[in-house]
Amino acid sequence: MIEELIQCGDYQQALTMLEDMDDESVRYLRLVCLVGMGEYQQAKTEGAWAKANAKETYYDVVSMYVTTLKELGEFEEAINILIEELSMPYIPYQYETLFNTAYDEVLLDKQEANYEVESKNQIFSIEEISQVLKNKECNEDLLYMALDQLQQLNVRMIIPVIQDYLMNPQNHFFAKTLLIEIMIDQQIDEDIQVEKFGRYYDINPSYMALVLEQTQYAETLKYLQNGIEDENPSLFEQCVEYLEYTLYALYPQDIYEEDCHVLAAAIHYYVATLQSMDIDLDDLEVMYYCDKFEIEQQILALKQIEC
């Protein structure tokens, strides 16, 4: 009967039937009703007590309590609770997924609420960013917001978390590269391992150049300028964008100077064909002083990045 009333949205009627505060199921259902009615202050008061005394309904109570705090704009307390729960040695999978999603939502709400009144580096703490990196199914917008703010914080505090992130094949190459660049900027003198496209690299950020400060960027750019900048400026700009995308994807893979002309030719061909432009590999052989077979192999490599 009570569950039916709640499902129908008749929270007030259901609440009048939920009087036994010694029953933890009653305490939980009262939270559901109070949140459904928008009575968040009362839900917070009852929720704190319900959380402290919950056993079988513990995770459900925590979920409702966090929702209450989020609606009240008390983001820090909600975040602290979620971090504490997600750091536990064991948490049922369905609740881990629920809490990870809630964590992303609370951080986004906090960012939106504080963006106008706080400087960017004050919105997320290093602990909050660390939790974002640990989240296996993190919201992409939130991830890049966190990485943007990590530039202003002391990255040394979460090196082990970053190391785990860099070695996870499921994490996106672009985010991995941004993390490496942040460590380069902060001159992190530590041995770090990175996984990219099934290959593993040992790096030390303090000895590395930023992606677009590498020699291979300047060299490949020079070949593209000589090949197409004057003839087709629009195609040239697109090729430069794709060159930067490629280098960010492959980093920290070495691209030798003697291979830059092949990379330029492959990018020229690949971007042109994406624009439905007719282009002959024989012409590219002459334009970029390289073998057609080498260009074809590099084109295949570029396509793998897109997969």
TrEMBL record:
Domain of life: Bacteria
Name the record gives this protein: TPR repeat-containing protein
Species name: Coprobacillus cateniformis
